[in-house]
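Per reviewer request, we include the raw input and output of the structure prediction for the construct analysed in the revised manuscript.
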Amino acid sequence: MTDHPSEPTNQPPTTSSEVPAGPAEMPTVNALGIDDLLEVLAAGLRDFRRAPAYGLFFAGIYVAGGWMLVLMLLYFDLPFLVYPLAAGFALIAPFVACGFYVVSQYLEAGDDLSWGIVFGTIKTMFSRDLGWMALVTGFSLFIWMDIAALLSFGFMGFQLFSFSQLISLIFTTPIGLLFLFVGNLAGAIIAFAVFSYSVVSIPMLFHRDIDFVTAMITSVRVVTKSPRTMAVWCLTIGALLTISLLSGLVGLMVTLPILGHATWHLYRRAVV
């Protein structure tokens, strides 16, 4: 399937002083196939290789932030929150990927890239509807962490465990395995909900003068238009992020830029 680009906007959209007469027209969404996923992954790899410094920089911020949070939880003797935080931290990955969207947009247009342009575009968009998207996603992360804490206390009581004791309890006892199953199930439901409303909405906000509600609804429409393909894409992202987490987050230095750039190309194929 070929790309269906709309009119490119190489600069962030400008605000207008005029109030729209009516609701924004919903963009058209295209059906996607598995071959599209392979092609956007290849395009994501190409963009990463064309501008590796940007990819390594933004991925490095994510990795450093992840390690800081993990060390903080261990310092305060809260090891039971390390795994849910590592899983929930993936919910905010689309915002770390904002830099990748800008880079891919400029590479696609053939325009010159600079750090000033990239940071300037991101700053402009966060002062507009992207900030509301961050608020919605941050609230989802807050809900997930609350659920994880409640499940931990419900299954294991209010006793504090060391990290090694917690690992042994989870993987060698029936109650620990049940806790792992229920926790992963709850996390998967929340993660798929966040995936559905954010998979193309964030790059869309960079590319179009559109409000965040319309962007979220369009993202959900993309998922419902091609449920099998988008489920595979969601599982692909989850698998690659899980492997990266098991590598001590180091793998994110490669997987995050590729997935971020690929998401931009997925949006360009999915939304007209």
